[in-house]
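Issue 218. Parser rejects a valid record. Input:
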Amino acid sequence: MKILVPVKRVADPDNANKVKVSADATAVSTEGLEWKPNPFDEYAVEAALRLNENAPKNEKLGETIVVSIGPTEVQQTLRQALAMGADRGILIDSNDGLLDTAVTARAFKAIVDAEKPDLVLMGKQTVDGDSNAVGQTLAELLGWPMATFAMGISTTDGGKTLTVGREVDTGVLTLKVTLPAVVTVDLRIVAPGAVKNGVTPADHKYNEGARYASLKGIMQAKKKPIDLKKLADLGSDTNLTTKYSKFELPPARSGSVTFVESVDELLQKLRSEKKAI
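Output the parser choked on:
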């Protein structure tokens, strides 16, 4: 199976307290922040590798391609995915300030049209923008079936379809999609038995979470190709549909605590003082 996995670099969520807003309030400053792959995208890479391998024999079955959009420094993020086991990378060179959901989805569609993968597998959302929209937009542009919030994937019908377990508020919703398709994944996709490809024995248990890159994998990643493309050369529409008018940090917490004697008193304060209800 040929699988395309979009990957984004994000500021390390553990450094959220270091985020600053520019003096003119028009942008969020990333100065001094550390970058890492978006966690949900890492889960998508792991799921793709599981779909494309015979795990007990350490045998590769298909091709896993990682693609990202951003400045040239994003190559480092792609190298991390290549070190995990992906085969090659594609970087769409662009300034972060020129991107939004629509621009990103249209750029990825151009890559899909050129690569013709069987499956686009991606994280359900990024932990910086949290818009949860690129996957759905891409599927709409492609006219492909899709499943979101996947917590389990199994190949069916000889690899022509996927059975996807979607995590919803009331439990698990099971869908069957015909390839080619777009699937976005949730945290539980990296549970030990979440991905079954019909080749790796069904009772095989992976380690919990995304795999760590081995020293051998890191060395091999240095030699794996990354195809550099310019956003302007893809022929996709680069007009932004989303614009931010202002950024501001939330107000600092006072640190004070008010205790109440009863539920009635709490409700009274929420109504009269905080105007919360």
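Fixed in the parser; the record now loads. The two ends are 53 Å apart (CA to CA).
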